[in-house]
Write a structure and sequence with these properties.
The complex is a heterodimer. Chain A is built from twelve helices and ten strands. By secondary structure, chain A is of the alpha/beta class. The longest helix of chain A has 20 residues, at 138-157. Chain A is globular and about 65 Å long. The N and C termini of chain A lie far apart (62 Å). Chain B is mostly beta strands. Chain B has one domain. Helices cover 12% and strands 44% of the residues of chain B. Chain B has one helix at residues 17-23; strands spanning 2-8, 15-16, 31-35, 38-40, 45-46, 50-56. In chain B, the strands form two sheets. In chain B, strands 1-6-3-4 form a four-stranded antiparallel β-sheet, with no helix packed on it. The longest helix of chain B is centred in the middle third of the chain and has 7 residues, at 17-23. Classes of the chains: A alpha/beta, B mainly beta. At the A-B interface, helix 9 and helix 10 of A face strand 4 and strand 5 of B.
Chain lengths: 311, 59
């Protein structure tokens, strides 16, 4: 009954349908880490000169990312720190923070933190109790504030690049969502590196898991006993993205490799479109409230906070 | 992490874990499987009555 690894005589732990690979733990680790390094090289995501800020939420994707950066690049003398944003969600944020803090302490990784409450004088818990459902879900607010806080922390710490745990599945969902929303600007803005790179107060966001399926990240975490927090945020609701997640996972069963094909097609389209940066310095203004860079008169974070504080 | 225990009976002998999961309306793309506490690939063919533990890793 035991399936053997394709590369050795040990029992296989995992089957990867898109390549018809059966791997034992060691050869899966090699395969996973090799693709991680290849993605960084292929898209030139960072170099030895960079100081990396690893956005770490305590979830499996960001914890595996932090683990790998520590494992592979610390000895190559690449400087990095972990960046954690406390959204201030009761009975949740403290648990996720503990996972991150314990790991950073154990591995002697610098940890930089802030919170929504500290930056914007409102926590996600308070938003959850007051927000107007017509404006979307709590995630709408939390996501905007989290990105802004990450940027502020990255600036304060003077990191040159911000790493996130976005994976192949996330990217496929985003590509489809933007396409079906007819949001061509947003469609072309996504990719393995996003964000404006020639503006002093904004750090490019890079995604070393761009070509890594989410299931394999989970497998890597479990096989290697990497700590992560597994429970959903209490404000998690069924979102539009879930419909695309389900569609992609169902398609992948019937046509293994579909997710890779989708992303590769998207990258070719992006290259052929010859679109570089959609927003340049010329289009940016200073937000009338926080004075940070924005393409509008008031940035999205200040707009949402103003609305919620009026309720 | 959501975990489910499922007993595979003789009706499903000689099927792969992948096919068994699909028959149970569980998407193999979203789960990892253990048998006797050890991870098993979904290409595994079941030949005897077995209890499997399904870990839902993608919600």
């Amino acid at each position: 009954m035991n399936i053997k690894c394709d590369k050795c005589s040990k029992d296989a732990l995992i089957y990867l349908a898109y390549g018809k690979h059966n791997f034992c733990k060691d050869h899966f680790n090699d395969f996973f880490e090799s693709r991680f390094k290849k993605t960084i090289r292929q898209f030139k995501l960072f170099s030895q000169k960079d100081y990396l800020g690893v956005a770490t939420s305590g979830g499996k994707d960001s914890m595996v990312l932090l683990y790998l950066i520590n494992k592979i690049f610390r000895e190559k003398r690449i400087n990095f720190c972990a960046i954690f944003v406390d959204e201030g969600t009761d009975n949740y944020s403290n648990k996720t923070f503990q996972v991150v803090k314990d790991f950073c302490t154990k591995e002697n990784i610098k940890l930089v933190t802030s919170s929504h409450k500290k930056e914007f004088d409102i926590s996600t818990q308070e938003i959850g109790e007051k927000y107007d459902k017509k404006e979307g879900t709590v995630c709408t607010y939390c996501g905007v504030l989290r990105r802004k806080t990450l940027n502020r922390l990255a600036n304060k710490e003077k990191v040159s690049k911000l790493l996130t745990g976005h994976n192949l599945d996330d990217e496929c969902q985003t590509i489809l969502m933007n396409l079906l929303d007819n949001d061509t600007l947003r469609f072309f803005r996504t990719g393995p590196e996003t964000g404006i790179i020639d503006i002093e107060n904004t750090r490019p966001r890079i995604k070393p898991f761009y070509l890594t399926p989410e299931k394999e990240i989970a497998a890597y975490a479990l096989f290697n006993q990497i700590p992560f927090h597994d429970c959903n945020c209490p404000f998690f609701r069924t979102a539009k993205r879930n419909h695309f997640r389900n569609f992609l996972n169902e398609t992948e069963i019937i046509h293994p490799g579909s997710k890779f094909s989708l992303v590769k097609s998207f990258l070719k389209i992006k290259e052929l479109s010859n679109l570089k940066k959609i927003i340049t310095k010329k289009n940016l203004k200073k937000c009338k409230i926080c004075k940070e860079d924005t393409s509008q008169d008031i940035c999205k974070a200040c707009e949402l906070i103003s609305k919620i504080k009026k309720i | 992490m959501l975990k489910k225990k499922i007993t595979i009976t003789k009706n499903d002998f000689n099927k792969t874990l992948r096919d068994i999961l699909i028959d149970l309306n569980i998407n193999p793309e979203t789960v990892l499987v253990k048998i006797d506490g050890i991870f098993k690939p979904i290409s595994t063919v079941i030949k005897k009555e077995t209890e499997i533990e399904v870990l839902v890793v993608i919600k």
